[in-house]
Amino acid sequence: MEAPSVxxxxxxxxxxxxxxxxxxxxxxxYTMIHHELSGDEIHTWNIVKGSATFPDLIHNxxxxxxxxxxxxxxxxxxxxTHDAASIQVLHWAIAACVAFLILFRSPLPPVARLLVPFGYxxxxxxAILSRNYAIGVLLGCGxxxxxxxxxxxxTFPYYLLLLLMSNTHLLAAVLAGSLHLCLLxxxxxxxxxxxxxxxxxxxGMLVLLPSVYFIFPPADxxxxxxxxxxxxxxxxxVAFGQAPLRCxxxxxxxxxxxxxxxxxxxxxxxxxxxxxxxxxxxxxxxxGSAFYVLRKHKASLVLFVTNLGLSFIIAATTFPLLTARYxxxxxxxxxxxxxxxxxxxxxxxxxxxxLVHALLVVQVVGGMFSTWKDIQLPFANLFRVVELIKEVPPxxxxxxxxxxxxAYVAFTDKPVYCVDMQRELSFILWDRSLxxxxxxxxxxxxGFREIFRQRGPNAVHMVSLxxxxxxxxxxxxxxxxxxxxxxxxxxxxIDKGSDLYLYRICPPETALAHGPSPPHLASR
Length: 524
Known about the structure:
By secondary structure, the chain is α/β, with parallel strands linked by helices.
């Protein structure tokens, strides 16, 4: 006797979801193995393992302008190992948990559940790149699991997840606040009394308050309010109009070797002015589609609109959303809003389904392209700093500049002298001293003068992320005061700022004996 059609369909769906999850684990794991850590990824790791105590970690992380959630999660790991690859293992586990919740715990239609994990953000940007974004997405999905269950919103587990989510990233905190507003609206729709609503509103504000404290750096931070005010321009307001393109259509410019942080329509605009008009129309179409899909469910629409509006305020005042990773939380807000919509409206209309699936297919194109390129090409060359170190003569001193120090410390597990900071460092602290050093137009030449004053005329070797042209641009005096010879280099990274260069720097007396360096520094 045949089994009923509904259980049979449910079994086939379960099998399809399990196969999809297995494929996701294999694809993401294989890509992670081939992904080379970039400066932003190892920067956090160096802070964590370089902080002697947990209070030190909290103090140091405050200079980042980020809440301490990701740092605190890495802290126990750093007590077990100093291998930078360990953060990739942890991050892969987080991405896998996100995919599991979407596939097996979300009420999204089956086809949507199969597509979402392979989109750009869930497969690449918030999965392969080990930063403090995926943990916020995971906690957001956990909140949606609770909100999709009757009478679980407003409970202790809900507020705990809200607290944790808001302390991972500024944009995650914005999304957390939007989720809480959604909960308040759902409570009102269910007939909760005004007193209870006020109580939950105040409790939500109290839970979100710690993240506000951590997001605002100390007064002596290079990222304090004054620095953001000095960098502000009206272009931030205009640039927000690009955010929907970056987050809903995250297909990179496939013709660009350095595809990361590009978007094909925005790049096409540079060569074909007609795309300026086309892009505006596409933005209207995208946002209109999102509103159309969510329009029947007020709480979900409020979640999406609130997150979009608050993101605009953030972008227009302090934090421009000029990259995919920042704009992506608008897309995550849409997915979570759709999750809550489907929890109460299980079936999408044909028009809604077409729009949702079309958006998800574009995401998959962007995700598969990016992972394929990351497997095929080096994302960063920072791990190759060990190769360049081996080329330095044993009797020669090796130094780096402040950002290259990240690579040296991460892959040798030793501090190093930073010539532009004129001291030995094991991690970057965005304090006032760094800000002042970066303002100097002679920070390299001043640093080398001090080195040679102390050590005499011996040559010094420097590993830098700066190409010869960039060094001259940053410090025009460098190749006039010293003989700077490019010894070796490691180029070809997808991330433009992740190539390495090894230089030999000779003191002024040697420079005079050999004559001035050729334009843009001497090359071997």
